[in-house]
Amino acid sequence: IAGITQAPTSQILAAGRRMTLRCTQDMRHNAMYWYRQDLGLGLRLIHYSNTAGTTGKGEVPDGYSVSRANTDDFPLTLASAVPSQTSVYFCASSDSGGGAQGYTFGSGTRLTVV
Amino acid sequence: GQNIDQPTEMTATEGAIVQINCTYQTSGFNGLFWYQQHAGEAPTFLSYNVLDGLEEKGRFSSFLSRSKGYSYLLLKELQMKDSASYLCAAMDSNYQLIWGAGTKLIIKP
């Protein structure tokens, strides 16, 4: 693993199903983030974690939950998927505060809810 | 409220220079970031400005004016591989990034 790994790469999901998007980083970054990216809207923050054991809500948290049991893993769960959750999901990480190096992003998960 | 504005799309010619502008309004300010995103790929970090002035990195330069809430990304000697979206993001007082919708840059031969 080098950087951030997201899985799956893409998924078609039936509405109402539960789904967990996985994110693992090997850079020992304290902070991790989940974004969704929709055409014309830019990146929108879903949830974040400043350090293991803590999480916070972003701009669009409804319908999503996260956990941060350790430094490396930050899974995102859709409890009951709806078509409006069709999007590309990016996981990112950073040293505390982002700093001069900014965020490092995973390659993304393209999710289609039908 | 917090807001980032940047043009939706720009077109430039291979070998030329292009400037992508970004204006921002945030609750507090802890720096301005530029990212490059090729179609279907993840954003990659290009630059970070926290003080006024110009930062140069090879063919790419980024400028910041905190008093004006303004930044630009300057790309010189454009190459076809520079065709991508360029995302402007400002970090607020909570160290959260506020993102613009991105500027799609089209390079023509």
Radius of gyration of chain B, rounded? 13 Å
N-to-C terminal Cα separation of chain B, in Å?
41 Å
* Most residues in contact: chain pair: A-B, 22 and 23 residues
Q: What amount of the residues of chain A lies in strands?
A: over 45%
Number of strands of chain A: 11
Output the helix-strand order of chain A.
EEEEEEEEEEE
Helix content of chain A: under 10%
Count of DSSP strands of chain B:
11
Taken in chain order, the helices and strands of chain B follow as EEEEEEEEEEE
- How would you sum up the major sheet of chain B? 6 strands, mixed
* Gap between N and C termini of chain A: 32 Å
**Approximate strand percentage of chain B:** over 45%
Low-confidence stretches of chain A: none
Question: Which value, in Å, is the CA radius of gyration of chain A?
Answer: 13 Å
Description:
The complex is a heterodimer of chains A (114) and B (109). Chain A is an all-beta fold and 114 residues long. Chain A is built from no helices and eleven strands. In chain A, a hairpin with a 6-residue loop joins β5 and β6 (56-57). Chain A starts with a strand and ends with a strand. By secondary structure, chain B is an all-beta fold. Chain B contains no helices and eleven strands. In chain B, strands 2, 4, 5, 9, 10 and 11 form a six-stranded mixed sheet that branches. In chain B, β9 (84-91) and β10 (97-99) form a beta hairpin. The mean pLDDT of chain B is 95. At the A-B interface, β5 and β10 of A face β5 and β9 of B.
